[in-house]
Amino acid sequence: MDTAQxxxxxxxxxxxxxxxxxxxxxxxxxxxxxxxxxxxSRDLSDAVHALCAVHGDPPGLAVEARTHCVQPDACDxxxxxxxxxxxxxxxxxxxxxxxGPTPSTPGQSDTEAALIASRHALETLARSERxxxxxxAVAALVQDWTAIRLMLDHAAERFGVDPVPAAFPSxxxxxxxxxxxxxxPATERAVRFGAEQLLAQHRALWDLLEARAxxxxx
Length: 218
Prior knowledge:
The chain is an all-alpha fold. It has one domain (12-25, 40-217). It has helices spanning 12-23, 29-34, 41-55, 61-67, 75-99, 108-126, 133-159, 171-181, 185-217. It holds the Pfam family DUF6975. InterPro entries: DUF6975.
């Protein structure tokens, strides 16, 4: 997969990458902590299980967006992302099995409710009737997943799982697709909205995991 640090032509994808750099997972301190060699295995396990709860069950964001494809010219790219995410779900499931049960943490029922709510929020984004909204959400997922994948691969090393290469379309292909799909002011605004909402869900997830890690230390 291409590095997310490349420069792209101004447009919808450039917008997604700029939002992701400031509001995405890469900017969250808890993810940085999880990438440290000193990260506790229980914290890595908790993150893997949470990602499995939000993104590990089919059909997933990209499939939902493709199924409800209100932006027909996005369907081929959405299909490619959806196909890649089938392998990501299998990878997360293997990691969750290798990591063992979810670490015991106070407030588990509240956590489960929050994860369900996050999954439902992503389903709502994927089914949006606003042209470009689902496209923006999936674009932000692909962009943000580059940082999340670093954590998953770190967890794989910790838990003895062989990492597998990601199978998403290249970022250059995604950049061209999203720039084209957000080619009007209205669709670019919708792409931005979808991206912001996806990243807000991921920030909330890392906030939750950070609070759970703190609770386990208390």
